[in-house]
Structures are given as C-alpha cells and as structure tokens.
Design brief:
The chain is built from 7 helices and 5 strands, in the order ααβββααβαααβ. The protein has 178 residues and is mainly alpha-helical. The protein folds into 2 domains: 121 residues, no CATH class; 36 residues, no CATH class.
Length: 178
C-alpha cells in the first residue's frame, strides 16, 4: 500500500507540469491526480471488520463495496497469490534503456531483474539539469531528452502509485504502457 507519495515525485511533477502538462495528461490521463491523494490509514485499519470473506465484498448497512483483488491485497494484507503483470512483449534491459534514450550500462544489473531504482531514474530525469550531469549516459540530444523525461516520469508515476513494487523499485515493464 502506498502510504505517502515520494516528495521527489511531487517536485518532478511540479517542475514539468508547467511546460508539459498536456503531454503528460495525454500519456496518463487523470492518473497524475494520485500525486495529491493522501491515504486514510485509520480507514484502512477499520475496513477488516466490514469484510465478508464468503462474498469477497465489504458489507455496509446500505451497500456493498467490491474492490479488486489487488486493492484487497494491498490495503489489508489478505492472502492473494500475486500474478505477474501481463505485458505484450518480453521485457529486456536494452529496450528499456532505449525507451529512455540511454546508452548501454552494464553496471545497472537490476534491469535484468526487471526493475530500476526510483532514485536512479529521478537523478537522470527528475531535475531539469539531469541531462547535463549524466550526459555521457545518454545517446540523445537535450531536446530529445525532454521527451524521454516525460516518458520516465510516466513510468515512475505508474510504478510508484498505480503498480507499486517494493519501496523505491520501479517495474521496467511499465515502459511498454507509456
């Protein structure tokens, strides 16, 4: 369960929305509003008493609430056998790097495990001067990097708020969704 939004993700959004809000909304629709959602932990703690395990719904006086399996698992830690995310292509580290305009870098071993660190992506794309600090890692111009920066933000937002893995890890297969 996402307890709070990483402040770096908020800063990144505030930085790019001024110039690229239209493009991001084209990629993500209204998902950017998740950045402003604050989960109510007390509500999450209270929900189990309303849980009906036979019908797999939350029963209230006047209505039933039917959450998804992922929501149930994430919110109240009920048993659920996690399934792998369905993606159209087999993920590869080369394709992921290419989708962000990055050169080959054998030191990024986590890519072979289908994840990448939030901080790694943020340091290269999250700040306006990321290109200049890490220009040797890119195989693109600064203008093209701006487009890759929007893709990186979209991947990180999806990986942090919509399809979270362990804290700080972003599933690289989300690159296929952007």
């Amino acid at each position: 369960m996402v307890v709070e939004v990483n402040y770096k993700l908020r800063d990144w959004w505030n930085d790019i929305k001024e110039h690229h809000e239209r493009e991001i909304h084209h990629l993500l629709g209204s998902l950017t509003y998740f950045i402003y959602v604050i989960p109510d932990c007390d509500l999450v703690r209270a929900l189990p008493e309303f849980w009906d395990p036979v019908r797999t719904v939350f029963k209230f006086v006047y209505f039933n609430l039917v959450p998804t399996i992922e929501e149930i698992s994430g919110f109240i830690k009920l048993s659920y056998h996690e399934c792998e995310m369905m993606v159209p292509y087999k993920p590869s580290s080369r394709k992921f790097r290419k989708s962000l305009g990055m050169k080959s870098n054998p030191t990024i071993t986590c890519l072979y495990l289908v994840w990448i660190s939030f901080d790694f992506v943020y340091s290269r794309f999250g700040q306006e001067d990321g290109y200049y600090y890490f220009y040797e890692e890119f195989k693109c111009s600064i203008e093209r990097w701006e487009t890759y920066r929007l893709n990186a933000f979209s991947i990180v937002l999806l990986g942090s708020l919509v399809f979270p893995k362990e804290k700080g890890k972003i599933d690289t297969r989300l690159g296929y969704m952007v």
